Prior knowledge:
- The chain is an alpha/beta fold and 366 residues long.
- It is built from eleven helices and ten strands.
- The chain has an eight-stranded parallel β-sheet, with helices on both faces.
- The two termini are 32 Å apart.
Amino acid sequence: MATGFVFHELYLWHNTWNWNQVFPPSLTVQPGTHAENPETKRRLRNLLEVSGILDHLVTIKPRRATVEELSRVHTPAHIAKIREISDRGYGDASSLTPLGAGSYEIALLAAGGAIKAMEAVITGEVDNAYALIRPPGHHATADVGMGFCLFSNAAIAIRHAQQLHGLTRIATVDWDVHHGNGTQAIFYDDPSVLSISLHQDNLFPVNSGAIAENGEGKGKGFNINVPLPPGSGPGAYAAAFERVVLPALTRFKPELIVVPSGFDASGVDPMGRMLMNSSGYRRLARMLLDAARELCGGRLVMTHEGGYSEMYVPYCGLAVIEELCGHRTGVEDPWDQLMGQWGGMSAQPHQTAIIDQAAELVKNIN
Ligand SMILES: [Zn+2]
């Protein structure tokens, strides 16, 4: 199994400034690090190197996406706004999404990294790929950057695949703890993209990601949300995959699967209240690999999104990438067994009740 890996040092130079996690500095609490800072990404990249798994991956060099490629998803005004703030050296994409000098060029490199990962999988250079890119993308809509996201990396790669490589049916499975509202909005009336998001119910953005948001127009039925209750763990996520995600993929028959991959659903993440552990993520990756092999020649592309635990994101990322490439490093996740013994790790009745509601949507895929 050949797995592509996209990374660039510049991804870590996108400056989100010294905020109090997500709020601008004030004279109330000492300024600290913005939640979306380079550290989790750097530590994941470092673990891939130290564990030796990097030697088993195919390096894919990113390039900057062009304005034309961005324009397949974003409005000229939005692209110009991000560029203007970046050139100015400081500003906010909308709210709580700061950027600095060079962030525009780095965001182009992130979107271009997603495109390169997509191309490598489509052309058969690799079987699947993980793009460890930054800034993240799944909250950005056509005309607004939000939730630490500037451009919608996954959506830009999907449009590239459709327009240049002729793919007609692509599915996204977003396991970031927050709702993939940008991806949803971009493809909401488009039946060529099945958008599935598993997320903590009403976390971010608020009032977004309900089961009732099922697509519109020709896209009716092709957007599925699974708003899991806070406290959902590996059992609930696996049940959601078995009852919703896998049946939906089987019905949709994608030519390729994209995973906006956030590790902020872990049980120790500061930005979410879920209970996932690395073996839980490993299991989800395994399920998607099996589905991809059955449905679309194994074609699977993951684009990095959130994940804010400096000590735990690396273990979750390593577990997923081990599954993708089929190589076990032998690195032990010291938290995995401990978290596995916590209460509430299996699917709970109030969680499966939501999953069963979302499962009703599968029949709307026509
Ligand atoms: Zn997130």
